[in-house]
């Protein structure tokens, strides 16, 4: 195993050819969430900062090998009607009773899965399992990040119902890639969440309120730019047709800070979920875990995840592919 491959296995990641909210922004969200933590937590998380950051992409990799994974990343709120934000039961058992588990999983379960992950992380803190603490922290951060993406809350998740195919990757990939270095990421300290399930729903509700603006403003801008919205960019030996920088800049300006606000909210929410799980577990001493190193069994699990990701046996939703779709 060469040095690069071994490093990837140690971190539980492999290099990706392009950035999605699931890759670039998820990693940034997790990394910056660490710095919202209090003294009793931050030393352990900072020591494992590389893993927390890079493992943020693990749930996206599993979409290609585990059929039950995909619904954990979204919820098609509008499937349930115009007043769904106010009528969907907030707790899993009541939602199952109203709609059935099959229906919920067919249209996404992200707010309920976030709550489930919170309880799993709390238990990991209670039993003092550093491997589980790190794994669950990284992956909980991923789902919280997804809950902040407007197009993860609608059946029109890739603009396929309005002739805007490719908008998902445009919003969550190209725009952060181009402009997020200029964002203000100071969000203050993590705060205790009195009701984690409600906090998960608040993220979804806030994101869903932005869906109309995301779609409407891009549609108007596309009509104004016409074919001028496209450009060709060369990366390595490949030349690709992409949405131009001028088009991206115009759309980013029209959104008026939306992506920055969503990333900032995600950072604060991720840190607050970690903090709340730790508080609810009795604030265990994490300094005794500072000598933790992954076991060979854990490294083998990470290698297996890499292998399954490469096979990509399962087709995921269109917006979750690794390429930005551009229609001619």
From TrEMBL:
For this entry, list what GO says about its biological process.
DNA catabolic process
Q: Which Gene3D superfamilies match?
A: P1 Nuclease
Per the database entry, which stretches of residues form a coiled coil?
A: none
Q: What keywords are assigned to this protein?
A: Disulfide bond, Endonuclease, Glycoprotein, Hydrolase, Metal-binding, Nuclease
Q: Name one Pfam family in it.
A: S1-P1_nuclease
GO MF term (any one): endonuclease activity
- Asked if the keyword Cell inner membrane belongs to this entry, the reply reads no
Q: Does the keyword Metal-binding apply?
A: yes
Q: Give the top-rank taxon of the lineage listed in the UniProt record for this protein.
A: Bacteria
Know the name of this protein? S1/P1 Nuclease
Organism of origin: Pseudochryseolinea flava
Question: Lineage from the top down?
Answer: Bacteria, Pseudomonadati, Bacteroidota, Cytophagia, Cytophagales
